[in-house]
């Protein structure tokens, strides 16, 4: 038996003109304010929502009204935006489940910023670009975005064999015209890192390699220091030594007023990069522009919350949330990668050697508990708060609170309270300058102390060394942190 095809009832417009009663053969049913009434009167079961970028702030209210009316929604990007957007070259900003494909941008009510492709192209087209952590979520997306600009060569630096193989294979199959170099290498090895840069002579280096998982880094602070701080030091030093034009450090919102090991080590990596930029400005003949790009969580990255929830739902288990008060900033992987390229291309516009910390526009923080409920509904299920008493309905997915993990904040920040963000020419990117003289003058001494501490068998000694550079770092990091 073949199901009857759906019947098109009509359209609802954001700004309905009373004089327009029909568009392309479809009846105009009214303005957006009449959405619920129309759905009820016409017994609507499904709705296609197509909003232009300027009105994406109405996503949530429309979704809420459709859910209240029992209507299944399907989001479709307007055709003119599809035609005018940059080509999709990597992740499609979605999570795939057996039951649904989830549009991640819509899930958080976010419209991606566009970029100045001409400016970015000036720094990438026909240039040699090296990406560390090239097999990771951000690193691999950077590679795919970079490839769309026609570089002369892409150097893939990655220590994980399978991840390196995957991104190298993608580049070979999709862009055979681009010369590629796959280097299985740990960037922490400073002397070999320098040798690789001397051999391949990159014009641009994007440093995405890092440890990122907060609870794991609380347990392994020496590893966090080694990878996040000394990995950054090794590649940044090599860039200056070999005359790389641009170096961009991928940072994190957890580097703001850090209270956990991961955030603290990312902040120290920023500090070292700023210190090096100050040194470069005084070097004769050196023109390396060093900058940092700081942003929050990316949706759909490896081992991120949405991937965890997707696995839990697929396995028929409840999904877990640590604290119902917790909020985070989110953007999609493709948008994060494109804005990193944009910000890196803007470095040096105010100072010759750069040293800027760019902050991406992350929008408003999202409540994780609310996000979990949206995710469950987007997968076609109903959220059930707490562990079920007895047998739950097949269309329900329980959401269980597990408690904050060691080192977690309830809320993240993107800049320090004392810093004033300065607008740039791009609406999705801000910049701030801080008084960095206090650590620049003592950076060598601080780094030496940290270097000695990371070889210690005492976890507490490593924490103490980190705390000498990060005033907000607690010496008692065994429990979850609830301060903002």
Mean pLDDT: 82
Total of helices: 17
* Backbone CA Rg: 24 Å
CATH class of the largest domain: Alpha Beta
Sheet with the most strands, sense and barrel status: 9 strands, mixed
Structure class: alpha/beta
Q: What is the CATH third-level topology name of the largest domain? A: Rossmann fold
* Euclidean distance between termini CA atoms: 58 Å
CATH superfamily of the largest domain: NAD(P)-binding Rossmann-like Domain
Task: Tell me roughly what share of residues is in helical segments.
Answer: 25-40%
Strand neighbour order, sheet with most strands: 10-9-8-11-12-13-18-23-22
How many structurally independent domains? 3
Estimate the strand proportion. 15-25%
Q: What CATH architecture of the largest domain do you see?
A: 3-Layer(aba) Sandwich
Quaternary state of the chains: single chain
Dominant shape:
globular
| Strand segment count | 23
Q: Spans of 5+ residues with little confidence (pLDDT < 50)?
A: 83-92, 477-484
Structural description of this entry:
The chain is of the alpha/beta class. The chain folds into 3 domains: 11-85, no CATH class; 117-365 and 409-467, Rossmann fold, CATH 3.40.50.720; 374-399, no CATH class. It has helices at residues 35-41, 59-68, 79-84, 104-107, 117-124, 137-147, 161-174, 190-200, 214-219, 221-242, 261-281, 305-314, 333-346, 368-378, 437-440, 443-453, 459-467; strands at 11-13, 22-23, 26-31, 46-49, 72-75, 94-96, 101-103, 128-132, 153-158, 179-184, 204-207, 246-250, 289-294, 297-299, 319-321, 327-328, 330-332, 354-360, 366-367, 382-385, 396-401, 422-423, 429-432. It has a 9-stranded mixed sheet, with helices on both faces.
